[in-house]
Design a protein that fits this description.
The structure is a single chain. The protein has 645 residues and is of the alpha+beta class. It has three domains: 277 residues, SGNH hydrolase (Rossmann fold), CATH 3.40.50; 91 residues, Immunoglobulin-like (Sandwich); 255 residues, Jelly Rolls (Sandwich), CATH 2.60.120. It has eight helices and 35 strands. The strands form eight sheets. Strands 18, 22, 23, 25, 29, 30, 31 and 35 form an eight-stranded antiparallel beta sheet that branches. Helix 2 runs parallel beside helix 7 and helix 4 packs across helix 6. The longest helix is centred in the first third of the chain and has 21 residues.
Length: 645
């Protein structure tokens, strides 16, 4: 039997009416009833554009009137998929894709779609109830139950010798939760709804697939993300974990040309239906994409974010063995899962710890267990921050094996007072600091009275160059942390800057010293001139008496400067002197210049640093607070005699 999906209007004569007469199935043939539940968008409105084609043995029972106000009337005729609100005519839902997917998975079966979506189920509007009263499930829930019962009776009359089964699909929409709801509240309502639906339709244990019209509200970074909706997504995932035969597919995050409530264009709506249908046959678990080695300061808290490649976008994570599994827990398998020490406490003693983790998707599939090795150490190397091919460099002057007197890197530095022509990069980028030539442009290797090594720059011509810039060409983000000691300069000096052969090249120079007052500030310029907004300034930073750990960063809209040292910290600790200002965004061809240590320049090097530069690092990513703090501590151990408070 062929069914036409393009009929027009209620009561329109078409081959849809063939569903009422049925046919004679083979003894083994099955009939699959597919109720389309929840937000009305699941069934769309009007024509199913672009799918005006015949689909063999797929039918629809009943539908809603196109007239608002009469959507609760039941129907025994076969009508096109509809929506009660004529004002948003031609909205397309994922129902058509769901039905064709179920048919493709069950080629010998008869598939009957049952449109039950008439507005929301109202899961948490006023607490869940399956009784026919306003609020909760109320009369809309009763309509859905009655529609299913009538459809099954009609199907039994048409195909009396077939075997019947049910697969329910529920699309959550904007009316199915308040803008802010606790995960436990929403989950309790959802679990009651699933249980009541299975009970009232005599379909105990039947498959139940959850989808959502609002995935863009669940996904951090999406332009429509709302943190208050994260609990709804978490409850959906929890249902797929905790309730038998419940599946979940969050759906694609594509909100182009819509009203932020319904899927549109049609292709995205159909994709949501395909995602939901695919969860029924998916057998491949997610692959964990987090790096599987990590360094954590001994005695500190651990918050290692877990990620996985999952078509349905909401993998959960589960501990699975490992020699030290008892030392770990996962903070929240639903929203933002992180690996942490048991009890969310501070870490154990320094050492190496191993745990197994596997990821699970909304179809119930586990991916392969992966081994994670975490090292609790006295410090975290900034080299561990370079996880995604970031540019930048890490220089550790306490490692003499990374220092060479000559540019070629053949003569090692062995004692204080020797020139330094090359400093090896520890970031993995091979972005080594190298002098222009084996001449007077090389700084000197020295060791201060506290036994801390540094490079001494003469303020005349000493400068080292790196192969890559500090920032990307897309957003200019960077983080730079380094140890400094110098007097207030008579002219502007750059501890770390940019170098180019063109005077018009955009640049970023994370740390520069003003010509008076010993003030520090970053410097930026794009195609339009000297950047945008007001740059932060740390005053009185250079006094020829105090060694300081300096952090400079740009997060895409704000520039930040922070100073940390034992003498200038606030009473009782804190974050140290900190300045942050709105800087604005920069052009897409920003900062394609080489990095320079101890100066900057266009055409020729200039603004040479006069003073000490200790160990440090720069990276073209704005780091998290925990990474910045760990990086500062790493630098501090190479410049100060005591740990930062």
């Amino acid at each position: 039997m062929a069914v036409h999906w393009g009929g027009r209007g209620r009561g329109h004569t078409s081959r849809w009416t063939a569903a009422a007469t049925g046919g004679t199935p083979t003894p083994s043939q099955s009939v699959i009833l597919v109720p389309l539940l929840g937000q009305s968008n699941i069934v769309g409105l009007g024509t199913i554009d672009g799918l005006d084609a015949d689909v063999t043995d797929v039918y629809q029972y009943g539908g809603q009137s196109a007239l608002a106000g009469s959507y609760l009337q039941l129907s025994t005729d076969i009508t096109p998929l509809g929506h009660p609100d004529a004002a948003i005519y031609n909205r397309v839902g994922p129902g058509i894709s769901i039905l064709t997917k179920v048919k493709a998975q069950n080629p010998s079966a008869i598939v009957i779609g049952i449109p039950c979506g008439i507005g929301s189920i109202g899961l948490v509007a006023s607490g869940w109830t399956s009784s026919p009263t306003p609020g909760g499930g109320g009369i809309r829930f009763e309509f859905a139950v009655d529609q299913y019962i009538d459809a099954k009776a009609a199907a039994l009359a048409a195909w009396p010798s077939a075997t019947f089964s049910t697969i329910s699909f529920f699309v959550q929409g904007e009316q199915d939760a308040a803008t802010s709801v606790a995960q436990a509240t929403y989950y309790a309502a959802l679990a009651s709804f699933v249980a009541d639906w299975r009970s009232r339709t005599s379909a105990a244990g039947s498959k139940f697939v959850i989808g959502s019209m609002l995935p863009q509200k669940f996904i951090p970074g999406s332009p429509n993300y709302l943190a208050t909706y994260a609990a709804i997504n978490a409850a959906h995932v929890q249902a797929s974990l905790d309730i038998s035969n419940v599946y979940y597919s969050r759906g694609p995050d594509d909100r182009t040309a819509n009203d932020n409530l319904h899927y549109q264009p049609a292709a995205v709506s159909r994709l949501q239906g395909e995602y939901m249908g695919d969860t029924l046959t998916d057998v491949t678990g997610p692959t964990i994409t987090s790096v599987n080695t990590y360094s954590n300061l001994a005695g500190s808290a651990l918050s290692f974010v877990l990620t996985a490649s999952d078509t349905y976008g909401h993998a959960t994570f589960h501990l699975d063995g490992g020699a030290d599994v008892a030392q770990f827990e996962i903070s929240d398998p639903y929203i933002t899962p992180t690996l942490r020490w048991t009890g969310n406490g501070t870490g154990p003693a320094a050492g190496t710890y191993v745990v197994g983790i596997r990821a699970r998707d909304g179809a119930g599939n586990y991916g392969a267990t992966q081994t994670f090795t975490l090292t609790a150490s006295a410090e975290v190397s900034p080299a561990t921050f370079f996880t995604s091919g970031e540019r930048g460099a890490v220089w550790d002057l306490t490692d003499l094996t990374s220092l060479f007197q000559d540019v070629a890197g053949t003569t090692p530095v062995t004692a204080a007072g020797q020139t330094v022509g090359k400093v090896l990069d520890k970031s993995g980028n091979n972005n080594h600091w190298v002098a222009a030539a084996d001449n007077t442009t090389r700084p000197l290797y020295q060791v201060d009275g506290d036994g801390k090594p540094y490079l001494s720059f003469d303020g005349s011509n000493d400068i080292l160059f790196g192969a890559t810039p500090h920032a990307t060409t897309t957003n200019g983000r960077y983080t730079c942390v380094m140890g400094l000691f110098a007097a207030a300069p008579a002219a502007t000096r750059y501890a770390i800057g940019s170098y180019s052969t063109a005077t018009t090249t955009p640049f970023v120079e994370p740390i520069s010293a003003a010509a008076s007052g010993g003030n520090l500030t970053p410097s930026m310029r794009n195609d339009s001139g000297n950047g945008a907004g007001t740059l932060p300034v740390l005053t009185g930073m250079l006094d020829n008496a105090t060694k300081r750990v300096i952090h400079s960063g740009y997060n895409g809209s704000n520039s930040t400067l922070r100073m940390r040292n034992g003498a200038d910290r606030p009473a009782g600790g804190g974050t140290g002197s900190y300045q942050s200002t709105t800087q604005g965004t920069f052009a897409n061809n920003f900062a394609l210049t080489r990095a320079a240590l101890g100066g900057r320049g266009f055409n020729t090097p200039s603004s040479f640093w006069q003073g000490r530069i200790y160990s440090g690092f720069n990276i073209n990513r704005y780091l998290s607070d925990s990474e910045i703090t760990a990086g500062e501590d790493w630098v501090a151990s190479r410049i100060l005699t005591a740990a930062l408070p």
